Amino acid sequence: MTDDSPTSLGATLTATVPMVRTLNLEYLETAADRAVLRLPDQPAYHNHLGGPHAGAMFTLAESASGAIVLAAFGDQLSRAVPLPVHAEIDFKKVAKGPVTATATLGRPAVDVIADLDAGHRPEFPVTVEIRREDGAVTGEMRVMWTLRPHK
After folding, report:
1. What is the third-level CATH fold of 6-149?
2. H-helix or E-strand spanning residue 110
3. Under a CB-based contact definition with an 8 Å cutoff, are residues 13 and 67 in contact?
4. Which residue, 18, 22, 100, 148, shows the most beta carbons closer than 10 Å to its own?
5. Within a 10 A sphere around the Cβ of 49, how many other Cβ atoms?
6. Phi and psi dihedrals of 53, rounded to 5?
7. What percent of the chain has pLDDT above 70?
């Protein structure tokens, strides 16, 4: 990815990942060190409490993790494909209204690329916080990603 602006990367992901379009996710920030996505308040995706469904929040957080991975490692796509290996989410508080997911890399990108350069299949964590508009953390996700070298 040569242009890592939220519009460019968000447009690419929106075009290639149908679930992003389905949930109308908004890309607010995409950089190699941080990605921020927003899930608008949409009654079609509410749960029994009138807030965003757990599946929608999972998709929001996983999508934020994918955005930071592409921003950080998009220049490696010619030799490796990024894949999530494991994900877990903790729901902390009831979410209502729009929610925002902020993803951060848990390992320096240069270290991950060094592992790839050494012929390894690197793994690296991405952490994501989901927040309501009032700033309360409603969920936390941890995703373990890998860069699988092309054969």
Report:
1. Thiol Ester Dehydrase; Chain A (3.10.129)
2. helix 109-117
3. yes
4. 100
5. 10
6. -65, 150
7. 95
| Other CB atoms within 10 A of residue 40 CB | 13
Structural tokens at position 106:
């848990």
Query: Residues 34, 131, 61, 37: is their CA dihedral positive or negative?
Result: negative
- End-to-end, the C-alpha distance of the chain in Å comes to 21
CA distance 113 to 117: 6
In 103-122, which positions are buried (b, 16+ CB within 10 angstroms) versus exposed (e)? bebeeebeebbeebeeeeeb
Helix (H, G, I), strand (E, B) or coil at 98: coil
Residue spans of the domains in the chain: they are 6-149
Interval 14-53: pLDDT, tens: 888 888 889 999 999 999 999 999 999 999 999 999 999 9
Place of tokens 């890998």: 146
Neighbour tally for 39: CB within 10 Å = 26
Exposed (0-12), middle (13-18) or buried (19+): which is 25, by Cβ within 10 Å? buried
Cβ(126)–Cβ(143) under 8 Å? yes
